[in-house]
Design goal:
By secondary structure, the chain is mainly alpha-helical. The protein has one domain: Up-down Bundle (Four Helix Bundle (Hemerythrin (Met), subunit A)), CATH 1.20.120.450. The protein has a two-stranded antiparallel ribbon.
Length: 165
């Protein structure tokens, strides 16, 4: 490898914004499959050991994703709040699908420098745009694991954790 090749490699980011969104949307697709796996009567009520039902966790994800991407894009953060509450799985999936479309629409509007800029998410949490995105993804993975425990305790095989396509 000549010096020019090394420079070109070093100048390329490890992951592009488009690749990051695809990674996040892969996790969101797996979370959608997890929502689908729940019986209607357990999605909104079932819990173990005082943990929140999975639908409550999904509201949390919805309250972060689009408002968070909007905050990263604009520097204007809405007050963080759980998403609109619904009582049917089909309605929860509709909210999820709308958020997926909204995220795809907002993402290209994020100026690349915003991923490295310091900000305060939702008026409470200091960090950079990229640290916020990582938190949104990590939080979803963490709570999806909780949903997997719920599903297994109900005798339901959860979606394969690697099936993000």
């Amino acid at each position: 490898m000549g010096n020019n090749s090394q420079t070109q490699i070093l100048d390329k980011p490890v992951i592009s914004p488009e690749e990051l969104l695809a990674h996040w949307q892969g996790h969101r697709l797996l979370t959608r499959k997890t929502i689908e796996a729940f019986p209607e009567d357990k999605l909104f009520t079932y819990s173990i050991g005082g943990m929140r039902p999975f639908a409550e966790l999904v509201y949390e994800f919805l309250g972060m994703a689009v408002p968070g991407a909007t905050g990263i894009a604009t520097g204007k953060w809405q007050q963080w709040a759980d998403a609109k509450k619904v009582t049917a799985k089909k309605d929860l999936l509709s909210l999820w699908d709308q958020a997926t479309e909204d995220l795809n629409h907002i993402w290209p509007a994020i100026p690349v420098h915003r991923f490295q800029e310091e900000d305060v998410a939702f008026g409470q949490w200091p960090g950079t745009g990229i640290s916020f995105v990582f938190y949104f993804i990590d939080n979803e993975i963490h709570h999806r694991g909780q949903a997997y425990v719920y599903l297994r305790s109900l005798g339901i095989e959860p979606p394969a954790f690697w099936d993000r396509g």
